[in-house]
Amino acid sequence: MTRLAVELANTATLDLDGELVAAFFDEHEVVPPPDGTYGGLADLVCTALAQLVDGDAPDAVHRLLRDYPPEMHLSDHDGVLHIHFSRDGAPAERWLGQLIAAKLALVAAGDPAVTLGRCAAAGCGNYFVDQSRNRTRRFCGNACASRTTVAAYRARATQG
């Protein structure tokens, strides 16, 4: 669920053909917006992630909860009882906002299962969910890690 927030913040939309949309939207009967936009939700989610990663007061999470209040209920659609934060078939922006509001509120409250980060590569700044064993990931992906490693190697080579 947090990966949806990260993708939305990093791209201002969601990949309509991506695995996240297929896994969540299709399963919950949510129709993605035809133009791929989610109103002001993307900017608000980006601000919320920045505040969480930087350790600032989670004002944007509070706003998400106010603007997209989750509708908690139990579901067993896949044979396992679990909590949902929005009703199946809800409009895409509302469904996504409620889901993200609930998940980021849990992260703000200290959910130990989720560690968020911001890419350390120069000029990137993308957010990511750190699922590494020791929660020390520094880059959003291999491209940024490789680019940083190569740049550091070249800088050392020119000094030597």
Biggest sheet, strands in spatial order?
Answer: 1-2
Radius of gyration over C-alpha positions, nearest whole angstrom: 18 Å
Q: Average pLDDT across residues?
A: 91
Approximately how much helix is present in the residues?
40-55%
The first-to-last residue Cα distance is 47 Å
Spell the H/E element sequence: HHHHEEHEEH
Strand content: 5-15%
Give the low-confidence spans. none
Q: How many strands appear in the DSSP assignment?
A: 4
Q: Structural class, judged by helices and strands?
A: mainly alpha
The coarse silhouette is: elongated
Q: Major sheet: size, sense and barrel closure?
A: 2 strands, antiparallel
Q: How many helix segments?
A: 6
Q: Can you give a write-up of this model?
A:
By secondary structure, this protein is mainly alpha-helical. It contains 6 helices and 4 strands. 48% of the residues lie in helices and 8% in strands. The chain has a two-stranded antiparallel sheet. The model has no long low-confidence stretch (mean pLDDT 91).
Briefly characterize the structure.
With 160 residues, this protein is mainly alpha-helical. It has helices at 2-11, 19-26, 41-54, 59-67, 92-108, 142-159, and strands at 73-75, 82-84, 116-118, 127-129.
SSE map:
Blueprint (H helix, E strand, L loop, with lengths): L1 H10 L7 H8 L14 H14 L4 H9 L5 E3 L6 E3 L7 H17 L7 E3 L8 E3 L12 H18 L1
Characteristic terms for this protein:
160 residues; mainly alpha; two-stranded antiparallel ribbon; 6 helices; 4 strands
